[in-house]
Amino acid sequence: MVALYVTSLKGDSGKTAVCAGLVKHLLSDGKKIGFFKPIVADITAPPTGAIDSDTAFIKRVFALKESVTNLCPIISDHDALPTRIQEAYAVTSRGKDVVIVEGVWRQRPGGKPIEAPNEIVAALNARVLVVEPYSKEWLKEINNYKDFGQSLLGVVLNKVPKSRLEQVRSEASAQLGKTGMNIIGVLPEDRVLLALTIGELAEHIQGKILRGAEQSAELVENFMLGAMVVDPGPDYFGRKNNKAVVLRSERPDMQMAAMQTSTRCLVLSGDTPLKPVVLDRAEEKNVPIILVRDDVATIASNIESALGNTKFNHENKLPKLAEIMEQYFDFQTLYKGLGLAG
Fold first, then answer.
1. 259 close to 236: Cβ distance less than 8 angstroms
2. In the chain, where do the E strands start and end?
3. What is the pLDDT of residues 109-148, one digit of tens each?
4. What single-letter DSSP state applies at residue 107?
5. CA atoms of 210 and 196, how far apart (whole Å)
6. In which element (H, E) is residue 177 found?
């Protein structure tokens, strides 16, 4: 049995998504897989009684038998961290071939780590996989992980713009080779993985779901603004599928046109009462409507902010994630590093 510690210096790196992709691939390959996400109580613990949403998602989507409490133990005795980690890990690792350990390595503003990942890695005799979200400074950021030494199996560059994918992959192979680090994957940014649910969208833009609340879990992959459109015809709105369309509430013509196309929901700005014909068409087409008092520009800004903080918490994202990892992740090197038969 071997532990793979998946970590990142940054939030919203896609760490949970990579963990889910690894679990799915290894399970499909006939391996017995566990998941483990220890939390140090005085540093990263959720409020008392709260459940870590990432762990709950992994447990549910992969039907793991252990309780969330066992999968995500809260370690309160920091002085005895290695011992407590080993005790908790023994529960979830029993009978497994590989345990994916989702790590947290956060820093104070001064740069000093507030969690000791090397203690956890040593306690579990784990190999380390780093997930680094793409930025222009990605190569400089990678140097921060050298402290893992021989435990470092490799690095995954995540959320790389598709237009830069080949260039970044070539640079990563050349530059990391000089440092002795393996590049295990260069994963492209994808609209499906960045998608919000209708419920998440309503929450982020402080909107009220007028109708279609039962569809809150459906994914919205694209967004369109109709405020400045001269021609409200379906030709314009037909350019994107599975979308939310942001419109002013006083424009029933645009609202009707948008619903002639693949529209996941309408987001309406303002306080003008909706026309009965719009409500009837939304009912007919089963299109949820979100009402927001802010103007269109503010709504667009809030959507942009929300897209930068999306979570991998929806099983409908899993097929796309698996497709991406099969194409862009080096499982052969992973298996070799973990001592697994391919």
1. no
2. 2-7, 33-36, 39-40, 74-75, 98-102, 127-133, 152-160, 183-188, 196-197, 208-211, 219-220, 222-225, 243-248, 263-269, 289-292
3. 444 444 557 888 999 999 999 999 998 888 777 777 877 8
4. B
5. 18
6. helix 165-179
Q: What is the C-alpha to C-alpha distance for residues 107 and 198, in angstroms, rounded to an integer?
A: 33
Q: Which residues pair with 266 in a beta bridge?
A: 245, 289
Using DSSP, state whether 257 is helix, strand or coil.
helix
Q: What is the mean pLDDT of the chain?
A: 88
Q: Which whole-number Å values give the CA distances from 143 to 136, 147, 148, 166, 178, in the listed order?
A: 14, 9, 11, 22, 12
Q: Which two tokens stand for residue 13?
A: 């790196």
Helices and strands of the chain, counted as H and E runs: 15, 15
Q: Residue 109, class by beta-carbon neighbours within 10 Å (0-12 exposed, 13-18 middle, 19+ buried)?
A: exposed
How far is 230 from 220, CA to CA, in rounded Å?
Answer: 25
Q: Single out the residue of 130, 110, 178 nearest to residue 19, CA to CA.
A: 130
Question: Between these two residues, 76 and 155, which has the higher pLDDT value?
Answer: 155
Region of 33 (left: φ > 0; alpha: ψ -120 to 50; beta: rest) is beta
Strand partners, 205: none
The pTM of this model reads 0.85
For the stretch 248-305, pLDDT in tens is 999 999 999 999 999 999 999 999 999 999 999 999 999 999 999 999 999 999 998 8
